[in-house]
Amino acid sequence: MCDSGQQKVEEKLPEETLKRWESEQAALKLQVIENNTEEWQEDPLFCGLERVAGVDLSFIKGDDVTACAMLVVLSYPELEVLYEDCQMVAITAPYIAGFLAFRETPFLVEAVLRLQREKPSLVPQVIFVDGNGLLHHRGFGLACHLGVLTRLPCIGVAKNLLLVPGAPGKEEFKDQVKAMQKAGDSFSVTDTCGRVLGKALRSCDKSTKPIFVSVGHQISLDSALRLTQSCCRHRIPEPIRQADIRSREF
């Protein structure tokens, strides 16, 4: 059985590897596009959007090496599953905070490439990523990494707030969350310079716990927030939720 909520234990890595990863992140970050690039992204009802995807990596319980890499494609706006790709993989890169992409992205990119080869008509127009985009210590999280490498619009959706410099303190955060009274309410998460890195979103009336939306690639934060809200039947947007459910079942 797979476990998406497995607690990650940070490992140590040689300094030279960390420097190489930081350098690669910095180079790829220059390619991130933070604005809308498609007509459907500007439309109030997202007319023209037909396929949305979700990706997730779930680990076998008690095993921090064997994982299930899942990609699902859903119709939009119906949110019915059109395609799924699940592969059991062996994770060789260690977990290092801030460098999650180097552990997970290779397998997610492979899944997208398989889809492009085998079912090109089902290639998604946007990918929801279980993780952060610009809301990251170095402004380049998993959603940015995947977006740049696949050249597809990506949205980062995290379940917990990443404590970057400038993020709200514990008490301020509690007050901001309490002020969100209904689905669709949100507040900005900024850095020490006041730059908006992402937004906390109350995605449904049934859950008071927010999710954290940030730009991955080729979409604006406003469009990413609206689309995330429109894909939420529950707290987690349906593309990620389906990827999580199916990976654990597999």
From TrEMBL:
Q: Give the matching InterPro entries.
A: Endonuclease-V (IPR007581)
Keyword set, alphabetical order: Cytoplasm, DNA-binding, Endonuclease, Hydrolase, Magnesium, Metal-binding, Nuclease, Nucleus, RNA-binding
Question: Recorded GO terms, molecular function?
Answer: DNA binding; metal ion binding; RNA endonuclease activity producing 5'-phosphomonoesters, hydrolytic mechanism; single-stranded RNA binding
UniProt function note:
Endoribonuclease that specifically cleaves inosine-containing RNAs: cleaves RNA at the second phosphodiester bond 3' to inosine. Active against both single-stranded and double-stranded RNAs. Has strong preference for single-stranded RNAs (ssRNAs) toward double-stranded RNAs (dsRNAs). Cleaves mRNAs and tRNAs containing inosine. Also able to cleave structure-specific dsRNA substrates containing the specific sites 5'-IIUI-3' and 5'-UIUU-3'.
Entry-linked Gene3D superfamilies: archaeoglobus fulgidus dsm 4304 superfamily
List locations, semicolon-separated: Cytoplasm, Stress granule; Nucleus, Nucleolus
The Swiss-Prot or TrEMBL record describes its family as follows: Belongs to the endonuclease V family.
Q: Determine the domain of life of the protein's source.
A: Eukaryota
Spell out the protein name for this chain: Endonuclease V
Q: How does it assemble?
A: Monomer. Interacts with PABPC1; the interaction is RNA-dependent and stimulates ENDOV activity.
Q: Which GO terms describe its biological process?
A: DNA repair
Q: Which GO terms describe its cellular component?
A: cytoplasmic stress granule; nucleolus
* PANTHER family referenced in this protein's UniProt entry, alphabetically: ENDONUCLEASE V
Query: Which is a Pfam family this sequence falls into?
Result: Endonuclease_5
Instruction: List required co-factors.
Output: Mg(2+)
Keyword check for Magnesium, yes or no: yes
What organism, scientifically named, is this protein from? Erpetoichthys calabaricus (Rope fish)
The question of whether Cytoplasm is a record keyword is answered with yes
